[in-house]
User: Which sequence fits this backbone?
């Protein structure tokens, strides 16, 4: 049961600016908004805040939409593009002008810079001094439209995360609503869009907390319903510093494509960054919907830990369906091989997944671990594998090759039984025999269980790889 049940249908929104990728902090904000709406059976909306025309790009919009879909954060209805609503934003500014809640300011850029220079010299806060607030003259000059903010009293926001926060109105300035070219500012657009979209809960990073006080002045001037605010602490790096690219502040597509993270792993990890419900670290999407509430979000910044994310990813890899993992790993393997896997090879990969995914922590590692199955002969050997194929190792390999070739049944159980008998007769541990065998079959020192490898490769391919090593050795010795 949630600690605080909304009194009307919940409508949340995620409102990214398309000036870059969907970064990790934005993804968490989207997730929290999505979960809150889904928990209460409400509506989750997406708004693209593309008013910065110089920096907004279609590529960034596509990356945001793709990242949202990959994370399974479906939005209700069509995405709203803020720039397309500029006329509505200007309409509200003109309404505020007509009602006396806004005024025209004719101060020039040079005058405003002189004002700020004087404030810096006097060590005063940099804010507009209201010089056109009460003037009635209207020179034939360019002007901006400013909100007439209250100058006395205070405003308190009962933030669902930060608690009650109060600011003196004297600290707020008359911010610009419309620029001199008639275009609306971010502050105006956000408030108008939130109202028109019926947003009931504004859940966002606490770097917007100061904006909330200024936006609330505008909301009250229009007589609109005030949303519930929940300002979530930002994510920090493991060292406690503001999250940056060196900590992992990357686009979600980088986690998918370059780090090999599954969407459910990233979602689970982001959920636990700042929100808690008991000690359970692994929370399914359905469990998250059932449990999530803003009251579970803490006030302290969370610390991003890539190793922890990788461990969670390993858990979800082990839980994932094998055909799904094949669909993810096959293109990665094909890229490394320079050729696509055929239908039979993809079937082998699916069969191998049960063994491969046990030790992998990323889809990249999964693909890398499966690569040996499809490499062409003669197989390349890494340094560790080459070291295992010493003269002593090659003698063992030749003897084991005879045992394997004589095996009438090519199953993991039958092959293991035959090799174990050989090792016992030779007075050796099974590992001593398996090491050169693994090196010859995979070109590496680590792989799925060696008898699983033999079955996956098949009799012909397995014996052929052993022969390659033995032949190379014989040629070198001669």
Assistant:
């Amino acid at each position: 049961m949630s600690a605080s049940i909304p009194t009307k249908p919940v409508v949340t929104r995620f409102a990214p600016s398309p000036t870059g990728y969907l970064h990790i902090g934005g993804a968490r904000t989207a997730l929290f908004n999505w979960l809150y709406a889904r928990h209460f059976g409400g509506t989750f909306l997406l708004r693209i805040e593309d008013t910065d025309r110089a920096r907004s790009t279609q590529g960034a919009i596509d990356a945001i939409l793709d990242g949202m879909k990959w994370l399974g954060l479906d939005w209700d209805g069509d995405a709203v593009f803020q720039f397309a609503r500029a006329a509505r934003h200007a309409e509200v500014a003109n309404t505020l002008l007509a009602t006396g809640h806004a005024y025209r300011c004719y101060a020039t850029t040079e005058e405003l810079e002189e004002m700020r220079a004087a404030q810096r010299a006097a060590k005063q806060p940099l804010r507009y001094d209201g010089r056109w607030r009460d003037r009635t003259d209207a020179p034939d000059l360019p002007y901006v439209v400013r909100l007439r903010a209250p100058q006395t009293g205070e405003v308190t926001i009962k933030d669902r995360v930060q608690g009650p926060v109060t600011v003196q109105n004297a600290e707020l300035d008359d911010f610009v609503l419309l620029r001199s070219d008639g275009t609306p500012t971010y502050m105006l657009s956000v408030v108008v869009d939130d109202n028109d979209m019926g947003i009931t809960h504004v859940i966002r990073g606490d770097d917007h907390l100061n904006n909330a006080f200024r936006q609330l002045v505008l909301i009250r001037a229009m007589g609109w319903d005030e949303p519930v605010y929940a300002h979530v602490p930002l994510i920090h790096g493991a060292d406690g510093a503001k999250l940056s690219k060196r900590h992992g502040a990357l686009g979600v597509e980088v986690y998918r494509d370059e780090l090999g993270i599954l969407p459910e792993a990233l979602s689970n990890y982001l959920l636990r960054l700042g929100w808690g419900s008991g000690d359970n670290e692994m929370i399914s999407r359905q469990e998250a919907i059932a449990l999530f509430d803003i009251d579970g979000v803490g006030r302290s910044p969370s610390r991003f830990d890539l190793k922890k994310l990788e461990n969670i990813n390993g858990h979800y890899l082990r839980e994932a369906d094998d055909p799904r993992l094949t669909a993810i790993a096959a293109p990665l393997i094909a890229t490394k091989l320079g050729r696509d896997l055929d239908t039979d090879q993809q079937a082998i990969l699916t069969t191998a997944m049960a063994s491969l995914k046990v030790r992998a922590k990323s889809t990249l590692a999964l693909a890398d671990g499966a690569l040996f199955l499809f490499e062409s002969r003669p197989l390349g050997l890494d340094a560790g594998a080459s070291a295992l194929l010493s003269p002593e190792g090659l003698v063992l390999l030749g003897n084991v090759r005879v045992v394997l070739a004589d095996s009438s049944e090519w199953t993991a159980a039958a092959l293991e039984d035959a090799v174990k008998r050989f090792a016992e007769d030779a007075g050796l541990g099974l590992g001593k025999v398996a090491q050169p065998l693994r090196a010859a079959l995979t070109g590496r020192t680590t792989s799925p269980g060696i008898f699983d490898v033999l079955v996956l490769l098949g009799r012909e391919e397995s014996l052929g790889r052993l022969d390659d090593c033995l032949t190379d050795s014989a040629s070198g010795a001669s």
Summary: The mean pLDDT is 93. DSSP finds 18 helices and twelve strands in the chain.
